[in-house]
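Quick one, tokens below. Sequence please?
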């Protein structure tokens, strides 16, 4: 009997998310240590549930059409400390500890490394690790 209550409880919180027409919701990864925005990715119902259960960030890869555990190839896992839903119910913020300090596939700490300066995008962060070293086949 308790398992049924748990299942109903799990379904209820997932039902409160406003999924888009593709069954996705944007998810922002934010560093719990300093508040830096590290990246944005997409989650489907299954990836959000797995993230909550496993305590590591699991996203939905639109390009590959499958679940993607952050760090599965690079080793730069995101350990999830908190999961927040915005007031409209259509955006998730994951409070994470970024293992290895690199969140971006370009080898930078954050995917948000470019700033608009005088009408041009200026790179503000150095590459910490060459992507070819992170994604060796």
């Amino acid at each position: 009997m308790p398992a049924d209550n748990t299942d109903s409880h799990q379904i209820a919180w997932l039902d409160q998310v406003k999924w888009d027409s593709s069954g996705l919701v944007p998810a922002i990864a934010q560093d719990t240590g300093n508040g830096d925005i590290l990246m944005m990715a997409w989650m489907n119902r299954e990836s959000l549930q797995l993230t909550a259960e496993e305590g590591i960030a699991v996203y939905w890869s639109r390009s590959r059409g499958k679940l993607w555990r952050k760090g599965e190839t690079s080793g730069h896992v995101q350990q999830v400390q908190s999961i927040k839903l915005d007031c409209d119910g259509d955006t998730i913020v994951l409070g994470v500890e970024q293992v290895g300090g690199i969140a971006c596939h370009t080898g930078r700490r954050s995917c948000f490394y470019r700033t608009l300066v005088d009408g041009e995008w200026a790179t503000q962060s150095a590459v910490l690790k060459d992507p070819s070293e992170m994604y060796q086949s």
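Helices lie at 2-15, 45-54, 131-134. The beta strands are 24-31, 37-44, 58-61, 66-69, 78-85, 92-98, 114-117, 120-123.
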